[in-house]
Amino acid sequence: MSIHVALNHVTHYRYDRAVDVGPQVVRLRPAPHSRTRVLSYALKVSPAQHFINWQQDPQGNYLARLVFPEKATELRIEVDLVAEIAVFNPFDFFLEPHAQQIPFAYTDEEQHELAPYLETLALTPRFQAYLDGIDRTPIPSIDFLVRLNQQLSQDIRYLLRMEPGVQTPEHTLLTGAGSCRDSAWLLVQLMRRLGIAARFVSGYLIQLVADEQALDGPSGTDVDFTDLHAWCEVYLPGAGWIGLDATSGLFAGEGHIPLACSPEPSSAAPISGRVEPCEVTFSHRMSVQRIWQTPRVTWPLSEEQWADMLALGQRVDADLRAEDVRLCIGSEPTFVAMDGADAATWEARSDAPASGFKATSMPGVFKVDVPPSTSWAQSVQGVDELYEQARQGRLEAQRFMIDGRQTGTGAGNPLLLGGTTAADSPFLRRPDLLRSLIGYWHDHPALSYLFSGTAWPTPRVDETRGDALYELEIALAQLPVPGVPCPTGLIDRVLRHLLVDMTGNPAGAQFCIARLDGDGPGERAGLLRLQGLEMPPHGRMNLALQLLLRSLVARFWRKPYAPARLTRWGTQLHDRFMLPYYIERDFAEVIDDLNAHGYAVDAGWFAAQRAFRFPTMGDCVVEGIAVELRHALEPGPGRGSASGAPQSPDASLERLQVRVNGLLADRYRLAVNGQPLPLTATGRAGEFVAGVRYRAWQADHGDDVAGQAHVPLTFDIVDTWTQRSLGGCQYHAVHPGGRSYDSPPVNANEAESRRLARFFRIGHSPGRLVLPALKVDDDLPMTLDMRRVPQGGV
C-alpha cells in the first residue's frame, strides 16, 4: 500500500543588485531519525559558483554550509526528494515502568542528558493561567499527551503567518491564534513546565487525498499537498522522541518528515545566514506529486483503467448478444459488521437490494442475494450501489487478522451463471461451454488460487480423489458437441459425483451443478454455481472478476476449450502454485489468451487482487541484490492431498515467497536461518524465487522439536568466496517488541502498520557463515520446509 511521492521545494531570493552573500546554513535535508523512508534526495543551489560542506549539528541534524566566493544577484535553493509514504503506527512503542503515568520523573542520567530540552522561559500571566488549568491527576502518559495535544489544537486557531520568527507563548495565548511554529513552541514550553523534555521540530508535512471519504468527521485534504511545518517532540523513556502536532491535535505520522530538531526554534530555521543590505524579492514554491503507488483494496483501479473496463464490458456484451448467448450473472456477496453495525435495518430501505442484508449463521456476517444481471451495465450499477449501501451501513467486505493480514469476509462470494430461465441457460443449450470452463479452470490454477481463499473449503477437482482427473476426462467426453441436443439430466448424471468436495458433497464443489440439470423438483434451473471465490473487498474488484468470466464465456462460445488431456499438476499445486510469482505468470497466460481472442483484458485490473491475496512483507537491497518477501499460500481446510482424505490444517504453519533480483548464482547464495534456499530461475537474468514454509508460533504437538517455532526468519545474501553475509533482512511472525494485540486492526491503515512493523531491513547473520549443502525435496522442489531442517541447523 506504499505510495512514492516526489516533493519539490524552491526558495528564491532575488536581489536588486550584485551583493555579498555570506555563509548560509541550510537545514532542508530529512533528519536521520525520520521514520518516513526517503528514497532519493537532491539539493541544487544557484549561483553555481559556491562551496558546500555537509555537517551534523550537536542534535544530529544535517546541515549544508554554503560559501559563495563571488557577489550574486540571487540565491536559489531547490530541494527535490522522493519519499515512500507507508503507514506506521505512531503509538507503537513501550514505556519504561517509571514513565507509565504522568507526572513522572526522569532518572538522574536522563535529566543530565536532556537538560537543554527542559529549559523554560520565564512565567507570564496568561501562560501561567493556562498551565494551571491543565489537569495533573495521574493518568497513563499516552492518554495525557493525546488530551493535551488535542486541547491545544482546539484552543489555538491556526493562522497563516508570513512574518519571520516565532511568537512568544504568552502572545499566542493572548491572541488565541498562531502559525504551526507558534503552536509548536507553545507546546514545547508547556511540556517542559510539566517536567517532560521537549524539542522544536521543523519539517515537511505531506498530506494525500484519502482513497475513501470518511463516514464520520472530516476526510482530510481535497488535494495532495505539502508545506513546511513545525511540531513538537517529547522524550518518553522507553519510546524515545515522539512527535506531537499541536496544529492538528494528532501524533506525527508518515506524512511528517523532520528536517531539524532543536531545543530552540532559531536553531531549526530552514535557512539562516548573512547577506549585504539590499532590496529583496522573495518567492517560495512547494509541490508534491504521486509518482508511483501500489494498487490496493481502497484504490484498485485508476480512472483510465476503469474507463477501459467499462468499454470492454460493453464490447463483450455486444458479442454475447450477437451470438445469442443469453448469459446472466448473479451473486451472493457477504459483508461483515463493523463497530457493532446492525444490517437488519437495511432490509426495510426502499433503495436497498430486493432481498436486503440477511444475517448468516456466522456471527456478524451478512449475505445479500443479488438478482441476476442480464448485462454488463446492470452489473456495474448493481455492484456500485450494493457496496456503497454496505459502506453507509458500516458493513465491510473484508476482515483483518490479528497480525494485520487482510482476508475475505469468511463466507465467500459465489457467482451464479445461467439464463433468465432454464431454457435460456447457455450451459444447457451448449454443454460444451461447461466443459470449457471446467477444463480451462483446471489447467490454469491461478483462477482457483488468485480469487479463492484457502480458508473457504472448496477444493479443485484434483484436490479430492486420486483418480478424479481420469474419471473427469471420461465424463466430459460424454457431453455433446455444439449443435447436438443435450438430453435432460445428462450433465447431472455424468458430473455430479465428480464435482464434489473432500467429503463427497456436491454442494461444496468448486463448480456446483446442483441447480443446473437435476431431475428433482426445482433442480433444473440451468444455473452453474461457481464457489470458493473470496469476497472482493472493493466493488470494482468484484466487477473485474465478473468481466473476466463474461469474457471467458464469450471466448468459449466462439471457440470451445477442448484439450486432449487435462494437466496432471500433482504436487506442483502445493509447491509452485502456492507462490504468487507462478500464480501471476499463469494468470498472465489467461490474459494473453483473452487478448488473442479479441478481448483486451488488462492484467493491471487485477493488481489490487494480487496485493490483497499476496501482501508484501518487506524488501531490501544489498550490493545491488534486491530481496522481496511476500505472503504465499498455505493449504487450508479442504485443500488436502490428492488422496481424497481431508487434512486437518496446522494453523501455526505459514508460507512466504522470496524473490531475488540481481543475484550472481555462481558466487552468491540466499539463505534463511543458515539454510540455503532452493532458488528457481524465472528466466530473467539474475532473478530467482523460492518458498519458505515455517512454523510461525509454538505448536502443541506433544513433541517440543516438532512443534518449535522457526521465527524470526533471518535472510542472508551470502558471499561464498568470503563466507560472509553481505547483508540481509529479518521477518518476525509476531510483533518483535512483544506487543500482544487483543483485537484485529480497525482499518486497512492499522493492518498495514502491523505488517510493516514485523520487518527489518537489517539483521543479517554476523561472522563467518558456511552454508550446508542444498537439499531439494523431490515432491516440493521450490519450497524449503523449515520443519525438515535438522535440530540445531537453524
Structure description:
The protein has 16 helices and 39 strands. With 794 residues, the chain is of the alpha+beta class. The protein has four domains: 3-87 and 274-293, Immunoglobulin-like, CATH 2.60.40; 97-203 and 213-255, C8orf32 fold (Roll), CATH 3.10.620; 303-602, 2-Layer Sandwich (Creatine Kinase, Chain A, domain 2), CATH 3.30.590; 615-788, no CATH class. Strands 29, 30, 31, 34, 35 and 39 form a six-stranded mixed beta sheet that branches. Strands 14-13-12-11-15 form a five-stranded antiparallel beta sheet, covered by helices on one side. Strands 22-18-26-28-27 form a five-stranded antiparallel beta sheet, covered by helices on one side. The longest helix has 20 residues, at 303-322.
